[in-house]
Automatic annotation (TrEMBL):
One of its GO terms (molecular function) is metallochaperone activity. It comes from the Bacteria. Signal peptide: none annotated. The keyword rRNA processing does not apply. Transmembrane segments: none annotated. Residues 215-256 are annotated as: Disordered. Residues 239-248 have a biased composition (Pro residues). GO terms for biological process: chaperone-mediated protein complex assembly; nitrate assimilation. This is Nitrate reductase molybdenum cofactor assembly chaperone. Keywords: Nitrate assimilation.
Amino acid sequence: MSPQPATIPAMVRTRVRAAVRRPARLTPEEAGARALLLRLCSLLLQYPDAELTAARPVLTTTVDALPAGPAARHLADFTAWFAGQEPEALERHYVEMFDLRRRSGLYLTYYLHGDTRRRGMALLALSRQYRAMGWDIHGGELPDHLPVVLEFAALAGGGAGEAPLRRHRRGLELIHRALADSESPYRHILATLLTLLPPPTEADKAAVANLAAEGPPNEEVGLDPYGAYAHGEFAPPDAFVPPPPAPPTYRSEGPR
């Protein structure tokens, strides 16, 4: 029996939406270029210790060699600033932007779940996702720390590997907005990431505006459900301090 005519437009709309949201199949060269962008963002969002600041020349050269486009322009703007700063100034700026400001912390599950039990479960689920892909975390950092999420995306590829980035797109938008409001050069790295994700929907825009105005959900609990990753209780919303920063999770002699 043929479907009723009234069902056809809905079916067409569903198929069109699915086609729009489905990532394009990438060639090996395109996938490699995308992985390089993700790894560069991961490196540049790590704490600027002596090893990372010593790698500034190779990072700048790598960014300068990227194919022309919005992502390359954003990263070039960042590395131009990054290369010209004194190491102590870089360290101070990083701590101010990412450790002392609630709206630009790099722990993504906070923006989705706030200080609730759901955050602990989200951290556990993310860690299990990493292990299922044969990848384990080193260095003691939480699995939702943005440089860790980016490194996983670079290694695992655009499907499952980038799923955590797509899931936390609204948090990334809020971090970008906060960095832009502070005129931090780190806004260019978040802008790069956003060019790699699907465009925001109207629902995304409304949710980010609401998150900026009201903050994430609040339920003052610790990370007990997460077991080995528990580091005590979260601070209340008006004094949120992310977990203490660990040394950079991944070390590299230069982008690969």
